[in-house]
């Protein structure tokens, strides 16, 4: 099944200077800082090569830089070795997106070393954990997610094959799949369902991916064996199977159903994905940031207030839900999924990466006056370290998509996209206009500059379209759901053209050659209440959650329907060039508000009780 709105090929979309490129560069530096030997330390141990590793590596028992990896990568941890697959995926994607030769060479070397480990283990088993963990799971003995570890390894190998052209990686994955095909073949359906009740990660997606690459029937066998009937069938019946259930067990299983639909075309798989989204998002709601979980468990539908604690938003669930939204967007082109991705990018992926060090915050606390707690580069290796390095390697896949008519601009971050219409090469370059004013009428030069001398009332962008020769196509621009009025567009000296009201896409069809489009997205401050505690609100500027810098819960006096009577713009130099800093007015104690993604070590609160004025 071909997506109706596919991403452009990797390498055809390039990040331009801006926050995504900055965060990408931080992530790239972290990925490059880790050595192949240390990433493979548990694979070497399982293959009986630990002594070789100790002789040929420079490390002691604990330390930074080139020293051994600890935390979840410690030799006593049952999910040790999980991070390598994330790392391989990140390297493969950064090679595909940027042509990063250094990371590709290092990832190729890691794959070569995995091949050595596989041979030492008899030609199939390629794992950082022993086979007995799988037998323990089948016997009902408690284990910590051995399938999760294997999914990461298979995912990394498959991405090395797909994005980096590694035939050796595909061969290693195929041999490991042979072990799983033989092992699962001994169980009946009930026994297999019991096994799948232990966290399986994205094994279903891994088998579907490998079937999509190879077409081998053994992967279809594995797809059927790993079908999560005890979750999927009740969801299809409309039952809530998610409340209080571990989110990071179930979201990757929905990814598997999504990928099964794409490689088989069977509509039953798509129905599962749509039922999962309906249960997880549509009939559940979410916090101001876009998150729906606490302590990695799904909150009860629209009952968020009591779960608003220190463990309210986990990075892996944010990343995984963005991926699920991306699947659904590629099938439908519905802007609701692009809006959801945007909110979670700003207030999850960016907010949970340290803008100075690039490190990860496992949870994003919603407890009043709390702090972000940052992980260590080599002492922790939480699951979120893994989704961190992948999340910031995939930004280019989210920004724009193709359709039958041309190009769709889905996210308003700076980028340059190259594509063809027929045989005509076309480039679209999108950049913000940092002027401190809103767009007004075109000047004599045809440039729509402006005259307002106060805070910008819009985010303004310039899209430059360059075609090798004149060619007709449609440029579709997302109308974000947070806009405070109609989108305005100018093409050259034409316009302004006001969009239809509400979210969706504004389509401009014309014969393009060398044209400039100015895009004005009206933006403003708004207050979003908790659904089950409507007198408690969070403040947002467009899609960006504003964090109040305070060390305790702080009530405000006023009317949440009039947020501009509660907060006033606060000029704060060049740190917030789009004017997203605020301060309270008319309150006993003043509070500054800044974008959540800019909070580093300051105490902050996201929700504020509002008391009416007497």
CATH fold descriptor of the domain at 402-522: Jelly Rolls
Poorly predicted spans: 58-66, 436-447, 449-453
Radius of gyration using CA atoms only: 25 Å
Straight-line N-to-C gap: 61 Å
Could you say what the CATH architecture of the domain at 402-522 is? Sandwich
Q: Helical segment tally? A: 18
State the share of residues found in helices, binned by percent.
25-40%
Beta-strand percent range: 15-25%
Major sheet attributes: 9 strands, mixed
Tell me how many strands there are. 19
Structural class: alpha+beta
**Structural shape:** globular
On the 0 to 100 scale, the average pLDDT is 93
| CATH class type of the domain at 402-522 | Mainly Beta
Write the layout of secondary structure elements.
Elements: E1 13-15, H1 19-33, H2 36-39, H3 41-46, H4 50-55, H5 82-98, H6 101-120, H7 132-138, H8 146-164, H9 167-184, H10 189-196, H11 203-214, H12 217-225, H13 229-236, H14 247-264, H15 267-282, E2 293-294, E3 297-298, H16 315-332, H17 335-349, H18 383-391, E4 400-402, E5 406-409, E6 415-421, E7 424-432, E8 458-479, E9 488-491, E10 494-498, E11 504-522, E12 525-530, E13 533-541, E14 544-548, E15 556-557, E16 567-569, E17 582-584, E18 592-595, E19 608-611
Parallel strand pairs: 5-8, 15-19
Antiparallel strand pairs: 1-6, 2-3, 4-5, 6-7, 7-8, 8-11, 9-10, 9-11, 12-13, 13-14, 13-19, 14-18, 16-17, 17-18
